[in-house]
Write a structure and sequence with these properties.
This protein has 475 residues and is mainly alpha-helical. The chain has 2 domains: 176 residues, no CATH class; 205 residues, no CATH class. It is 72% helix and 0% strand. It is built from 19 helices and no strands. Helix 10 crosses helix 16 and helix 13 crosses helix 14. It is globular, with a radius of gyration of 23 Å. The mean pLDDT is 90.
């Protein structure tokens, strides 16, 4: 079940909200969220729900024992067991196929017999809920926050359907108090502005990302020999906007639903394509992943406190892991290494270079670097990725002979405008005010009017098209 489906929009979500608003007491509201979240997950992955719930129960009691023990050595052992449980499950389900495939390729190259292996299916959203489980264990271990008292509350935190499938990654300490009491956030204004945020995300996903995605799939399905320079640039520009409006749209929907039921989920995007360097890009793109990697991996490795050579190595390693986190394929590993390289180059000399050339040239150059990375990210194989990137810079101006509908060009222009308009002074501060909690009733009513209009357009688009993928579901 996806947010941008008739089943969710017309049946599941309205039924969930009606019952939720009728229930009194945080304890019972949490139970309702948990039950509906289990149904939501089981709808798409019934075979894995028992594994997920089992790991949640095991982790909860492991952390409970860890928090109560007064012996530091025992705490460290229990903490290590919790990390091993979560990383172990993630490694087995997400990377075992990748590992065996590469072992078999090596064995066959050496003339040896390949290993027999049954392909392991990937549980939906495992990358996101595994990281959230880790934040719970680490935050309790570090005494950032005390553990939850009820296993049902912990299960609700991990399985909460708004952010279960594709984030944002919500750290335990960010919403721990809201899990136990969020009455202060359960206001009419919050619910209405949350509804607006949800519909805004839905429109971004359905009216923009889906339209671009159809053409992107066609271009990336072509044989590399049939690509031209112009076609390759159209494909990668469209993909850059598709993945942004798809993923940020999902984050908007998750944040909106969270606000409607009293939770403050962290922001996950902040106009990433106006970044003037790759370092800034990662402060604006998938913000919760970047912060997670920084606080739970980069800083424990030494952060900025180590010699520069070690710091650069740590930075690069973190982004190699970030690339692998996105997918079990060499294209993702190289994509992570690519971004890690530019983060190091930023610190060595690029930041000074960008400062000299000015804002607009820096934005353009950073966007081009980002798109080269997206070619690696989107390609199914490394050979195709190299061919695609080579075609982008081939300076072969032969016409492709492929014509796109006016709808595609219109949406591409709209996507470009709303991806880059925050470069205009004052737009970012206006966006921050728009998404804040302190809204006048007049503003709220205008937002509701736009929500109804966007909902009608989005529902019409959903019912008239069979193309409705969510890019980050495979992560």
């Amino acid at each position: 079940m996806v947010f941008s489906s008739s089943l969710f929009l017309l049946y599941f979500f309205p039924a969930f909200l009606i019952v939720y608003f009728l229930i009194r007491g945080t304890k019972w509201k949490n139970l309702w969220i948990l039950l509906t979240s289990i149904l939501f997950y089981a709808w798409g992955a019934p075979d894995f729900i028992f594994i997920v719930v089992g790991s949640i129960i095991a982790d909860f009691y492991l952390v409970q024992v860890m928090d109560k023990t007064g012996i530091k050595r025992h705490k460290r052992i229990l903490m290590a067991l919790s990390v091993l449980l979560n990383i172990g499950l993630l490694a087995y389900f997400k990377y075992s196929n990748f590992f065996i495939e590469n072992i078999n390729a090596l064995l066959e190259a050496m003339g040896m017999t390949a290993l027999h292996w049954t392909q392991v299916a990937l549980p939906i959203g495992i990358s996101f809920f595994s990281f959230q489980k880790l934040t719970y264990s680490v935050d309790v271990y570090r005494k950032v926050h005390s553990p939850l008292k009820r296993v049902t509350d912990y299960a609700m935190y991990i399985l909460m359907f708004p952010q279960l499938i594709a984030g944002p990654i919500v750290r335990f300490n960010e919403i721990a108090d809201q899990i136990e009491d969020r009455r202060i956030n359960e206001t009419a204004t919050n619910r209405l502005t949350g509804f607006f945020r949800f519909i805004l995300g839905l429109a971004k996903k359905v009216l923009i990302a889906n339209v671009l995605g159809e053409q992107v799939d066609i271009i990336f399905a072509m044989d590399s020999s049939g690509l031209t320079m112009g076609l390759s640039w159209i494909g990668i520009i469209a993909y850059a906007f598709q993945i942004y409006f798809d993923f940020s749209g999902y984050s908007d929907m998750a944040i909106g639903i969270g606000r409607m039921i009293g939770f403050d989920f962290p922001e996950n995007f902040n106009n990433p394509y106006i970044s003037q360097n790759i370092s800034e890009f990662w402060r604006r793109w998938h913000i919760t992943l970047g912060k997670f990697m920084k606080d739970y991996l980069y800083i424990p490795l030494g952060g900025n406190r180590v010699p520069k050579s070690k710091m650069f190595l740590n930075l690069w390693v973190v982004f190699l892991i970030s690339g692998l986190w996105h997918g079990a394929a060499w294209t993702f590993v190289i994509w992570g290494a690519f971004h890690g390289l530019f983060l190091v180059l930023d610190r060595l000399f690029l930041l000074r270079f960008y400062k000299k050339i000015g804002k607009i040239p820096s934005i353009i150059l950073t966007f081009i670097i980002t798109m080269v990375g997206w070619a690696l990210f989107r390609a199914e194989t490394l050979p195709f990725a190299w061919d695609y990137i080579g075609t982008m810079f081939s300076f072969n101006f032969t016409p492709s002979g492929i014509f796109f509908e006016q709808k595609f060009w219109t949406i591409l222009v709209i996507a470009a405008f709303f991806s880059l308009w925050a470069a205009i002074p004052g737009i970012e501060s206006w966006q921050n005010r728009l998404f804040s909690k302190n809204q006048s009733m007049r503003t709220v009513l205008i937002m509701v009017a736009f929500s109804v209009l966007f909902f009608i357009f989005s529902l019409a688009a959903i019912t008239s098209s069979g193309f409705n993928p969510f890019i980050y579901f495979r992560f």
